[in-house]
Amino acid sequence: MADEDHSVTFWAEVAKAYASTPGVIFDLYNEPYLGHTHPTTADWSCWLNGCTNTTTLSATSPHARALVPYQTAGMQQLVNTVRAAGAKQPIMIGGLNFAGDPCGLSDKGGNGGVCEQLAYLPKDPLNQLAISFHTYLPNSSCTTESCWNAFTQAADAANIPIITGEFGEKDCSDAYMDSYMTWADQNDVSYLAWTWNVNQSRACRVGNDRANHYLLRSYDGTPTAVSPNGANYKAHLATLSADAPSS
Q1: What's the CA gap between 80 and 95, in Å, rounded?
Q2: How many CA atoms within 13 Å lie on the side-chain side of 159?
Q3: Residue 220: alpha-carbon gap to chain centroid
Q4: What SS3 string covers the chain?
Q5: Mean pLDDT of 145-174
Q6: CA-CA-CA-CA torsion for 173, 175, 178, 180, nearest 10 degrees?
Q7: Rounded mean pLDDT of 127-143?
Q8: Which pLDDT band holds residue 47 (cuts at 50, 70, 90)?
């Protein structure tokens, strides 16, 4: 989670620098992982309000590790910091479990029937927050339509938009991306594929390989031929009308 020592200053400076640039959207912290894939209510409280946390850092030896305590900055503090700097743009809020399970369906002990991210969502005086959702096959916890529907229905009821800040798959197929984009188009959910890197592999690497996410063959925008994701994503976007919510 974001540290209070530096993250608050960082966002104060960034928000001030871009306060008059309306095309900017702020994403406060990428993939929080308090509690990893099974967070607790205490983790969600820390996510919102901050707490004392520990992180593992290398010690004197490359094989030694040390647990180092630090004070986190909660999402509410970061939202307040952006607004205090005069920035009025939308703010993306990624939840726990790597921003991959907004309603906490995989939370330790369950979520008690409550959509956790909405229950702990920070307050914004401008009402300009959006849920940032990340979904990958096979890594993410929320990879089924029933899970997507659960948090979408909760977000719609709370009048909170959803931006898929990252999505993709690593299995040398585009079936998951296709199914997600089709669902997202039908539910007015925005999406941004990951990642705009050049794939230098000679062939798609079967298995859980990071390079299979790479969308490009070159930085001129040509999609990679190594895996189908880049060409499929480009072709799908081309089918959308100019005013489609997911474009």
Answers
A1: 17
A2: 2
A3: 26
A4: CCECCCHHHHHHHHHHHCCCCCCCCEECCCCCCCCCCCCCHHHHHHHHHCCEEEEEEECCCCCCEEEEEEEECCHHHHHHHHHHCCCCCCEEEECCCCCCCCCCCCCCCCCCCCCHHHHCCCCCCCCCEEEEEEEEECCCCCCCHHHHHHHHHHHHHCCCCEEEEEEEECCCCCHHHHHHHHHHHHCCCEECCCCCCECCCCCCCCCCCHHHHCCECCCCCCECCCCCHHHHHHHHHHCCCCCCCCC
A5: 94
A6: -110
A7: 95
A8: very high
Max Cα distance, the chain (Å): 56
Are the C-beta atoms of residues 4 and 81 closer than 8 Å to each other?
A: no
CB-side neighbour CA atoms (13 Å) of 13:
5
pLDDT digits (tens, 9 = 90+) for 85-133: 999 999 999 999 999 999 999 999 999 999 999 999 999 999 999 999 9
Q: Which residue has the higher pLDDT, 70 or 60?
A: 70
Strand partners, 131: 93, 162
Q: Report d(CA 239, CA 244) in Å as an integer.
A: 10
Domains, the chain, with CATH or none: 7-238 (3.20.20.80)
Q: Tokens 């690593």 correspond to what residue? A: 170
Tokens of 29: 């912290």
Query: What is the pTM (predicted TM-score) of this model?
Result: 0.91
**What does residue 109 show for φ and ψ, rounded to 5 degrees?**
85, 0
CB-CB contact of 84 with 8 (8 Å): no
Distance CA 8, CA 82 (A): 9
